[in-house]
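Repro case for the chain-ordering regression, as requested:
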Amino acid sequence: MDRPSEEILPQQPPVIEPGYTFATITDKISSIVLTRPVSNGWLIGFGISFLIVMVFLYAVGYLFVRGVGIWGVNIPVGWGFAIVNFVWWIGIGHAGTLISAILLLLRQAWRNSINRFAEAMTIFAVACAGMFPLLHLGRPWLFYWLFPYPNTMKYWPQFRSPLVWDVFAVSTYATTSLLFWFVGLIPDLATLRDRAENRAAQIVYGILAMGWRGSARHWSRYETAYLLLAGLATPLVLSVHTVVSFDFAIGIVPGWHTTIFPPYFVAGAIYSGFAMVLILAIPIRRFYGLEDFITERHLENSAKVMLATGLIVAYGYGMEAFMGWYSGNRYDSFLLWNRLHGPYHVWYLLLLAANIFIPQVLWIRKLRTNPLALFLISGVILTGMWLERFIIVVVSLHRDFLDSSWGMYYPTRWDWVTYIGTLGFFTACMFLFLRLLPGISIFEMRTLLPEAEVKSR
Amino acid sequence: MKRAPVYGLMAEFDSPTELVVAARKTYAAGYKRIDAYSPFPVEELAEAIGFDHNGVPFVVLVGGILGCLGGYLMQWWIATVSYPVNVGGRPYHSAPAFIVVTFEMTILCAVLAAVFGMLALNGLPMPYHPVFNVPRFRFATKDRFFLIVFSSDPKYTSTGTHVFLESLSPRSISEVPS
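-- result from build under test --
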């Protein structure tokens, strides 16, 4: 909505290539949805994701029949893949809100071309995240017991438990992300309604656009509401992973009971989220020819955010190790030893490599603007962040205070199928989103053009 | 109520600057019941048509306060009155532990107020609106800028207003049937 002061930084590549008008921007973005034929690449990609969704449904059906015993969770590791994947997915969602809300408040106009699909990514990632605690409930059909509602059992949730905080944090986050995304879509849905040739598309987009006509009064309220939503989403997104980290930090298990968890979790969330943004943006701009809208500047800025948040995460690891030694607490120092030398030490070393050492190549400018290199590094970071959650959950739990209660955790094939299944669900949703809704905010892109500015007389 | 057969007169412009200038002139000429349509938010436009105050911030404030109080009171009532659970002798009314849910409820209610308040104040969803009767209005969501003088304006006359809008040198003028 606000134009950047391009004059101040002339050496940066532009956020939108020159030569576009209001009409060509509209045509280019809306044609992806309205006129472009379904390509074979899309069909194959969607087909594969859809098959994975079917496998996921099979795994979930089997889980409902047999119970959580088909997973590898047992005492002492009662929180296995379900929580690892929950934390990983919800962290990925954070980048979408960061881009759409925080960068809006900071007047970073470059966000305008990536916020829409980043927000979609948030919603789908939160949906994937939300499935895991529900599937882990054992009796998922009673999930509504998590919410406070008057019931014949005269029972209420325990508000001193971080798990209840988490229910509120995640459901507020999901609701806010969905509404924020939908509000952003309304003007573009109106554009699609007015440009669709096909009667069914006109009706569907017409209903969704709710009669939006772009009146100045409407825009004024819309802009106020959008800005306020951004202002509300900003503390919210920082609170969500903080509350997720409370699930661990409020407990007394070694490696969890630490005050560094909230900031370190939030930084890790944004780190993995930007990695996912790049994993999605790089193929989307390539296959839909959107290099003029998602430029090298976007890639480079995302890489810089990853580098910065990666360093915060590295500081978190360093501080964990330091406190393990400095506290003098034998359980904390054992945890450090166990991470480096215990049965899961290979994963810990891989985690250090993937999250700390490999991403340091992003200091090199050439790599920050090289799509292929960024794609690969983002994949490494996503793997690393998944390993981080695995280490936090499993390594802390499998050897706690009493060595008589030590054990090992081995994920079963159903753990893997459920995890990979959500990846399929996520990509299937993204494929559908790209075909059915404008993947780039059309009206916000229009405001980036010089002629969008009213010349004062 | 019988509706006037004509909803207003609509002029079409090519750029936001032209629209803002035209809107200011129309407002200055004494037309108060006017509106302007643009494919993206134009900051100066609301003030140009004499719309300088919107109720969204107030609605959001009320939503946030209600969410905050409601969230805290709900927890207080559940933990001390309806379902007190003694956990290791800790106080039933454990204020610090209630902060997180209070915060989340504040945000949730403020967000709901922002979205639904904005839609309600805008009168959306609105299945029918006369401006869509103008065929060229479909470009209002693409690259054209429109100004309308409603026929309910006391100064409105079908010829006089037409002549006035002509003087703003628009790209086209259409009569909007209601």
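Ordering looks correct now. The two ends of chain A are 22 Å apart (CA to CA).
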